[in-house]
Known about the structure:
This protein is α/β, with parallel strands linked by helices.
Amino acid sequence: MTLTLYNTLSGALEEFAPLEAGRVRLYTCGPTVWNYAHVGNFRGNLFYDLLKRHLRVSGYQVTHVMNITDIDDRILHEAAHARQTIREYSATYERAFFEDLETLRFMPADIYPRATEHIGDIIELVGGLLADGHAYEVDGDVYFRVDSFPAYGALSKLDRAGLRAGARVATDKYEKESASDFALWKRAGEGDDLLGAAWPSPWGAGRPGWHIECSAMAMRYLGQTLDVHCGGVDLKFPHHENEIAQSEAFTGLPFARFWLHNEMLADLSGEKMSKSTGNIATLRDLLAAGHDPVAIRYFLVAGAHYRSPLRFDDDALHSAAEQVRRLRELHARLQETPREVADEGLRGEAESARARYRASLDNDLNLPQGMGHVFDVVRTANAALDRGRVGEGSQLALLRLLDEADAHLDVLRADDEGLEPRLQAMIDARERARAQRDFATADRLRESLREHGVLLEDSKSGVRWRRS
Length: 468
Ligand SMILES: [Zn+2]
């Protein structure tokens, strides 16, 4: 069995093998922690999760690095408004991001480097690029000289003349040699130091640009050539193109061998969901509305192939919840089945479904197709169980099939003890309603928590819950 992945760089499906036998170096672009992540962001994260789980199923050890961008213009702006340092401001959203990942059963990365803790690495990179003529300084700002890197545009397949014309509009305020040149280092503005957002450098006090962070942190932990670099298609240009230019201009080596890009989550009108278009729901919104996090996980990871757009709506979430319910139900039934029955008719079918499931995953992580094979058997298995005709061999083969799928899905296990995230989200929503003196909403949430078996007690130290 060979694993085939679609490599954006070559524009083709390619057989995957890491540089070092048995070990995959994986870098995935992480969040900018300036606000709560919207559910569309988690589609990307769960694509990383799927890839990583399948690499592990395929026998690889994976070293996964995902950066935390804790300095950028939005963070700076919001922190100034909130009269906080950028660290104080971003800490809330960083914590929320990790909580959300845990809620969605994301398999944690090995390293989550923060940009602000790698300023030295960034300065070293920028210094090297300046020394080699790949960058230039203008009044405390440092820019990458795109003309010095002839391969620019190879990933996004955009022609350079077009890039230059398209990039001109938004960038006139900088004194750059060429409109497509991009910032590696930005001169500090007045008061940035008070926000903890200015670092000394050979070019004066300032902060790193966004693109250079990823190059610095990826190479710091994974070496100069990565096996796989992932991100959303919206990052292909300019972010990933810029990462390649900076890194390869610095090292003279290929930066990443495989580039994998996931499509976006779209709303009903087909628009990309994002904060800038306003059509957003955070994971917390969905949990407060009573959606099961495991169903949300299933929807995001198996609702569509990662390279196809995924439409977000209530029906799709409900159908995901129903599929999870059917998988769990069959799993529970199989564990109860008495083993004396001798009928092994389903064994071959379950084993061939498992082979087809595996082949789908090996074919560029086609999980939706794989689940089609699984559900074909779920139907037959339930019918056979109804008739009491599942022998031990069939039973084990069916359980193996479910386990194989669950290695990617991770939906069969029950929630750990403690409050389920959606119930916690309802408590949080009630607290917010009370703070806004919206007592009708607060009472409604209290009542619906009671129906879920959770009783609330308000005390001076805050709200406490217990099970009824
Ligand atoms: Zn990045």
